[in-house]
């Protein structure tokens, strides 16, 4: 059977000082990979390096805005010079702006598209040439429930994540011949800083209505954690998934399969 090991592999996980990216990179380290990550500020990169070190991982951190093509190309060149060429790329960095569409500025819409869709294009474009040269590569795009579903106030994010699903399928189509597998992970609702506003306790100490809503929509009846994504992420980064390409693996506790719990 093909191996789940990542021994000898170099992974770049974008936006991975904490949250889902940190969880995935930590699992990659445990599977034997060398970890490279970036964040948008020196402060966050230093916090990330300290957090990885506390977990026993000597990670290589880079300050890079993934929306800026010259910064991305410089980061990839530095990684190739300092660490080695990238075997595994996880396009994880992402933002969300929860604003009703008719109240959202075009600038706000563009910012979300820039980070969540344009940046995975920019970073993938920067790493694919060396993957072609080596004859193998793994690209994993962090999609979303919003790659399949919409909801109020997340028009830009849903448009970006829907586009990211199709970018994943197109990279598969265009570069599969070079033994590059490009797949997506579609997390359900995961407890990270990004979703903290949807889980915060109400003034009277009761649960946030959205918290109750999501648990009723999830057969597992709970929010996910970054740890829930680790096994699927290792699988898609390993030789074990060499014939899996263009697939979005939803790790959602069953949300997409479930009509939702009847109100009691
Ligand atoms: P998070 O806690 O908000 O972390 C996002 C990370 O991306 C942060 O480290 C952030 O850095 C970084 N980032 C943002 N813009 C960047 C840029 N321009 N350049 C470089 N780094 C940038 O989010 P998360 O919950 O871990 O989510 C990670 C990914 O999973 C995102 O793509 C998100 O859309 C997706 N996702 C999340 C959930 C969920 O329920 N949490 C579910 C499905 C998909 P700063 O802190 O410096 O801004
Ligand atoms: C929201 C949430 C979601 C999650 C995730 C679900 O406001 O609906 O932030 O978008 O982040 O993308 O898969």
Notes on the protein architecture:
By secondary structure, the chain is an alpha/beta fold. It has one domain: Rossmann fold. The protein is built from seven helices and seven strands, in the order βαβαβαβαβαβααβ. It has a seven-stranded parallel β-sheet with strand order 3-2-1-4-5-6-7, sandwiched between helices. Helix 1 links the parallel strand 1 and strand 2. Helix 1 crosses helix 7 (230-237), helix 3 (69-82) packs parallel to helix 4 (106-134) and helix 4 (106-134) packs parallel to helix 5 (155-175). The termini are far apart. 42% of the residues are buried. The structure holds NADP nicotinamide-adenine-dinucleotide phosphate and D-gluconic acid (GCO). NADP nicotinamide-adenine-dinucleotide phosphate (NAP) binds at residues 14-15, 17-21, 38-41, 44, 65-67, 92-95, 115, 142, 144, 187, 189-190, 192-195.
Write the SSE topology.
Blueprint: E1 10-14, H1 19-30, E2 34-39, H2 42-54, E3 60-63, H3 69-82, E4 88-91, H4 106-134, E5 137-142, H5 155-175, E6 180-187, H6 209-217, H7 230-237, E7 248-251
Parallel strand pairs: 1-2, 1-4, 2-3, 4-5, 5-6, 6-7
The structure holds NADP nicotinamide-adenine-dinucleotide phosphate and D-gluconic acid.
């Amino acid at each position: 059977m093909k191996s789940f090991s990542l021994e000898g592999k170099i992974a770049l996980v974008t936006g991975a000082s904490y949250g889902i990216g940190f969880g995935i990179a930590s699992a990659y380290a445990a599977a034997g990979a060398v970890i490279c990550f970036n964040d948008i500020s020196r402060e966050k990169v230093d916090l990330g390096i300290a957090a990885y070190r506390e977990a026993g991982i000597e990670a290589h951190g880079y300050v890079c805005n993934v929306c800026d093509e010259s910064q991305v190309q410089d980061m990839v060149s530095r990684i190739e010079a300092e660490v080695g060429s990238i075997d595994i790329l996880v396009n994880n960095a992402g933002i969300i702006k929860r604003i009703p569409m008719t109240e959202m500025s075009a600038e706000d819409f563009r910012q979300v598209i820039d980070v969540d869709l344009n940046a995975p294009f920019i970073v993938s474009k920067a790493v694919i040439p060396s993957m072609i040269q080596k004859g193998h590569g793994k690209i994993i795009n962090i999609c979303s429930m919003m790659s399949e579903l919409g909801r109020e106030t997340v028009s830009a994010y849903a448009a970006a994540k829907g586009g990211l699903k199709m970018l994943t399928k197109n990279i598969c189509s265009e570069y599969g011949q070079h033994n590059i597998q490009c797949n997506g992970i579609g997390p359900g609702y995961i407890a990270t800083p990004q979703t903290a506003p949807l889980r915060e306790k109400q003034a009277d100490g009761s649960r946030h209505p959205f918290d109750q809503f999501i648990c009723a929509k999830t057969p597992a009846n709970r929010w996910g954690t970054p740890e829930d994504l680790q096994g699927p992420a290792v699988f898609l980064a390993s030789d074990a998934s060499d014939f899996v390409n263009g697939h979005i693996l939803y790790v959602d506790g069953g949300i997409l399969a479930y009509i939702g719990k009847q109100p009691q």
